[in-house]
Design a protein that fits this description.
The complex is a heterodimer.
Chain A (H helix, E strand, L loop, with lengths): L1 H13 L11 H40 L2 E4 L2 E7 L3 H8 L1 H32 L6 H13 L2 H11 L6 H8 L11 H29 L3 H9 L4 H29 L3 H5 L17 H11 L3 H33 L1
Antiparallel strand pairs in A: 1-2
Chain B lengths: L18 H9 L9 H25 L3 H4 L12 H11 L2 H32 L5 H11 L5 H13 L7 H4 L6 H14 L2 H9 L4 H30 L2 H6 L7 H8 L7 H36 L1
The chains are: A mainly alpha, B mainly alpha.
Chain lengths: 328, 302
């Protein structure tokens, strides 16, 4: 995982060399270390108190709940059912439907988004007039909330008076019932995600591009590499850790996709369309818990989501490590 | 999705004052040549696509329902904006929602910046047993989906009778793993060990050292973290939707309620969306440049 590899690198830089500074007598030095010791905990305590109460404890508790038959109205009186919820989940048509949708929407939303962000970062890396303007404008979708963006886009994608259908008809194409179709609704939702995140990822890539040493490009130029070849053989390889990182982050986001499918029909239904054509895992979990009041089932779905994330992050980490090894 | 700071090759070693200089040097490299008209055309197109949905909110929110349904549709704002604002305010308590969101996002920002600076400093510069494990724990949780926490959190606030109260959405979000990591990465390189040693030799208490040495150095990163945290907190959707109702909503909860219930009136929904988004857009117009810089700096620092 890239997050971890970043840490390792930083840790290597930050690792304080206590031995080298040992010019002072051993005793006072030891005492100072001890003071530091105590104060370290004091500094991290406020963070970890809140963290333990509202993150760690809930994670563990969710695991416990997932082994019970529990409902919202009967929160503490659940009965132990062991792995029953997990067995039900794996046999549930809704779970597999939501998993499929989460994957297809995730791919539709992530792949074009990151490719466009890469291209956009390349353009932004030129000596531009109005550089700040372009960068700021491209970040505006990121500042727009999921709720606001989805409400606007669900109008733009509207069947009868939606602007997108009006434009399709104006050029002689047929209007699309975006919300009703499986592919069309998933594409539309992917468009919302792409709109919100492309500019943000472009800035991340841009920052990474600017830290590539100019000498690399000079060398490539001397070798007669075209601009495109330079992009392929200098820019992309240098950005690999960053690209891997954005893939991981986008994937984690995609697995949790919730607000967009919830509000896409405009009325906050948890079914994800008439036939669940765009119900994601996040939405399913919300439906199980807060529409059907099956808290145990919802907890099981939440754990399944976490497992999926772990697998994806793990695969990414392995790929990253293998590629790194291949480079050496 | 939280904003995480990705690692970047060969970066993050230089303290921040050096960053602009490095950037300028690279821009002078052969890579960053003069852009042609194609570049400007493409960028303008992307800029238009980025702005258009927001502009459309204004257009649709300032017409009557019948007017936006016309062919061709209108492309300029119209006079009905304030009527629609009024209708939206009647349908959903957006005024109250904005006030609530300011309170919630403001508290979360103050808490996050304070706690994450404290913890980030400890992880960057202090030695204590179990530090590695604790830091690993912090980083690991960045992968855990929100969904995994909401059920017990809901039980907790139900027991405390906090449903529909603002502390229910403030407290669980008061710290962020990203924030700790972000501050740690910044302080590792920006805060010289000699400065801390000097403070210690002068006999300053650890608390004094934090306020008069660490905080001044950390200020630029704290500002960036504050902006990003405020934005994220303002836009937080999942947990507030569960913990609050439309009787005492944040902006996002109010917006979610806007489209449901009544026969949806497109122009009113759009006017309400505009009202709820306007505060962030104003802040963004003023601080946009700093936020852009912060995200890019975060990218290099991480």
């Amino acid at each position: 995982m890239t997050i971890a590899s970043g840490t390792v690198r930083e840790a290597a830089i930050a690792a304080p060399p206590p031995a080298s500074a040992a010019t002072s007598p051993a005793r006072p030095r030891k005492r100072r270390q001890l003071t530091r010791n105590r104060w370290g905990y004091a500094y991290v305590a406020p963070f970890f108190l809140v963290f333990a109460a509202f993150s760690l404890y809930p994670f563990m508790y969710t695991a416990w709940v997932s082994l019970h038959e529990t409902s919202l109205s009967n929160i503490n009186g659940g009965t132990w059912v062991g792995l029953e919820n997990y067995r039900n989940l794996l046999q549930s048509e809704f779970f597999w439907n939501a998993t499929r949708n989460t994957f297809t929407i995730g791919i539709l939303a992530t792949v074009p988004q990151l490719c466009m962000a890469l291209g956009l970062a390349h353009l932004l890396n030129y000596k531009l007039r109005g550089r700040t303007f372009f960068r700021t404008v491209m970040l505006m979708p990121y500042a727009t909330s999921i709720a606001a963006a989805t409400l606007v886009f669900s109008q733009l994608f509207g069947r009868d008076y939606g602007l997108i259908n009006t434009m399709l008809e104006a050029v002689g194409l047929q209007a699309i019932d975006w919300e009703a179709g499986t592919v069309s609704s998933q594409v539309a939702i992917a468009v919302i995600v792409t709109w919100r995140w492309t500019g943000y990822n472009a800035l991340i890539y841009l920052a990474a591009m600017q830290s590539i040493p100019g000498e690399l490009y000079e060398a490539a130029e001397i070798d007669g590499a075209s601009k495109w070849k330079q992009f392929l053989h200098v820019t992309i390889p240098s950005l690999r850790p960053t690209i891997l990182f954005t893939i991981v982050v986008s994937t984690i986001g995609a697995v949790q996709l919730f607000g967009e499918p919830l509000l896409f029909a405009g009325n906050g239904t948890t079914s994800g369309g008439a036939s669940g054509q765009y119900q994601t895992l996040g939405l399913l979990m919300y439906q199980q818990g807060w529409s059907n009041f099956h808290i145990g089932q919802a907890a099981t779905t939440a754990w399944a989501m976490f497992m999926i994330i772990l697998v994806i992050v793990g695969v990414n980490a392995v790929i990253g490590r293998l590629r790194n090894r291949a480079d050496r | 999705m939280a904003t995480l700071a990705p690692p970047v090759p060969d970066a993050g070693r230089s303290p921040s004052p050096a960053a602009p200089a490095t950037r300028r040097r690279h821009r002078g490299g052969s890579k960053a040549g003069k852009p042609g008209p194609v570049t400007y055309t493409l960028l303008t197109l992307v800029a238009l696509v980025s702005i258009f949905p927001l502009y459309w909110t204004l257009v649709a929110g300032s017409h009557t329902n019948a007017e936006i349904a016309a062919t061709p549709p209108p492309f300029l704002p119209n006079a009905s904006l304030f009527d629609n604002f009024q209708a939206a305010l009647e349908q959903a308590p957006i005024g109250k929602a904005i006030l609530n969101s300011v309170l919630v996002a403001g508290s979360i920002t103050v808490g996050t910046v304070l706690f994450c600076t404290l913890a980030g400093f400890a992880f960057a510069k202090l030695q204590f047993r179990g530090k590695g494990v604790l830091l690993g724990l912090v980083i690991g949780t960045m992968m855990v989906p929100t969904q995994l926490a909401v059920i017990p959190l809901f039980m907790m606030i139900a027991e405390l009778q906090w449903v529909n109260q603002l502390q229910a959405v403030i407290l669980p979000t008061l710290v962020s793993a990203f924030g700790v990591f972000f501050m740690r990465q910044y302080l590792i390189s920006a805060l010289p060990n000699e400065l801390l040693e000097a403070g210690r030799v002068d006999g300053a208490s650890t608390f004094r050292i934090f306020w008069s040495i660490v905080v001044p150095v950390a200020r630029p990163a704290m500002a960036v973290l504050a902006m990003l945290t405020f934005l994220t907190a303002w836009n937080e959707f999942f947990w507030p939707l569960i913990a609050l109702t439309t009787a005492n909503p944040t902006v996002q909860v109010a917006l979610a309620g806007l489209g449901s219930g009544y026969v949806p009136q497109r122009s009113v929904i759009m006017a309400g969306t505009l009202l709820g988004t306007l505060p962030v857009l104003i802040v963004f117009t003023i601080l946009g440049k700093q936020i852009v810089g912060g995200i890019m700096q975060g990218a290099v620092k991480g």
